[in-house]
Amino acid sequence: MTQALFKASEYASVASTTLRNTVLFNIVHIENISKSKLNQIEDWKEYYDPNRVSVDRLKNTNQKIIREIKDDDNEFTESRNINNNNVIYKLLLRDRGDNFAYAYEQEPLGFLRHGSPQAQNTNTPLAIQLGGRLLVKQGATVQRGVIFLTHNSCNYLGIHTDDRELVDTLNDGLAKKEIDILQKQLGSV
Fold first, then answer.
1. CA-to-CA distance for 6 and 24, rounded, in angstroms?
2. Half-sphere exposure of 160 (CA within 13 A, CB side)
3. Over the stretch 161-172, which tens digit does the pLDDT of each residue have?
4. pTM of the model as a whole
5. E strand or H helix at 176, and its extent?
6. How many Cβ atoms sit within 10 Å of the Cβ of residue 79?
7. CA angle 166–169–170, rounded 5-degree value
């Protein structure tokens, strides 16, 4: 079975349409676009070198945030807190043909949030490791070559053994890489 590919250039001039085929992507970058780049740098520094974190970040470290609640039906319900649900993530995706595309959350996607059942212990601000597989379904909204993700339009499939080299490459030294990228974007390097 051949995998459908996504060529953003085919969609770039179209104001709004839907994805023609289901496409399997790897997630190669995740950015919290609801937070300033300066605050993102501080978040990453907290994981990279906790001894160099701003003093303001240390004063409330004993406060606990409830990230999920197990209800009577043994289902997890994400808490509605500002640190988890009021953020929007931008993803950089790569398909099997090495075509890249940006995708934005159109609604909060559980796998991108700490405390969700799909979240992994990454020891970073990200809830999942980079390199995981994301299946974007036929019919997903595409505007000017950018994909908009909803619960119904995508399935996070996690890390696949065939992608181990990619996963290791993307996640090795991730905190330092992210700090460097964000500092360059701010022009502070």
1. 9
2. 11
3. 999 999 999 999
4. 0.79
5. helix 174-186
6. 14
7. 85
